Sequence to fold (213 residues):
Amino acid sequence: MLCTVELDDELAELEASLRTVRPRPVAPVERHTIDDAVTAAIAGDAGATEQLLIFLRPLVVRYCRAKLGRLPRSFSSPDDVAQEVCVAVFRALPSYQQLGRPFLSFVYGIAAHKIADVHRANTRDKSDPTAEAPDVMSIEDGPEQITLRNELAERTGHLLRILTQRQREILVMRIVMGMSAQETADVIGTTAEAIRVAQHRALNRLRKQLAAA
Fold:
């Protein structure tokens, strides 16, 4: 993986180049206009590329934090991985049209691959006692707040482990990311109705587990 400094420099260089060559103001990218923005960015429209980056970065950051937030500290934080995903997406952008799938599916496919790399590296590093470091805590957190936060995170992680990988992925996209059923279906490769059914079953399973606890 690229180091954080290299990723920051590459994204900063991309943004700077876009600002210098952007010919006209471009409307912010929204979910319903993303295909038009992608087409324009592939054609070399710097303004569309910049707006696409602005649109994607917070989505990718939230996704990486949701998927990696409970991992022990390693050489990659969720935000580092999000930076790497953004760089990889824009490097691969010219090849996107050849893939024949929704753009968000393309983006999250890259993100899932990077996250899988981090999980594999974390598994390898568990045998190294120096691989994990204590979480950095806010100076405003007192002992009670730290304990409560850790207990809540641990309970949530344990609760989600009763779900299948597919159910967890759907809940992350629908609840954490705020994606529509159709957008989630496009990413996973199914129908919107199947996503709604899977989400309903996953939430019912969580409710039953909470009631039994």
